[in-house]
Amino acid sequence: MKVVGSYSFRVRALKKDSSYIDGSWSDYSEDMYISADYLEFLEKGIDTQNSGPGADGSGQTTSGTGVVYTAGWVQDGSGWWYRKSDGTYPVNTWFQDTVSGSWYYFNEQGYMVTGWFEWNGNWYYCGEKGTMYSGDCTIDGVSYHFDQSGALIAS
Length: 155
Known about the structure:
By secondary structure, the chain is mainly beta. 6% of the residues lie in helices and 28% in strands.
């Protein structure tokens, strides 16, 4: 996609054997608008919306800009953060990655937190890859128990 405009798509499976039987087509996807800003981002790797943690110090980016983002993990000089498809990112909150199912906590700048931290009066631990611990876990040789929400249960 190298032209500004609205796009949709359909998919179908192809069975690879001696007969090459085609599967049926899916329904059309929702329309996706590709803006000039997004094309520039794709071509040059430049985020013309200046979004993401640390971009302007204001936290959340403004959605509804007409820019379509690829949702996913982004690493910069300060750490890891997660950009949603509308360009926003989690700040001071938990976020569940729908691909892995894992939970992550993001600080006031929007960066993934690792290690021990206190949130809403409870202690939590996120490993070096940022995933929240739950259940019985051993950290630095010490056994801990966390509830389903990830909160440390005092023993």
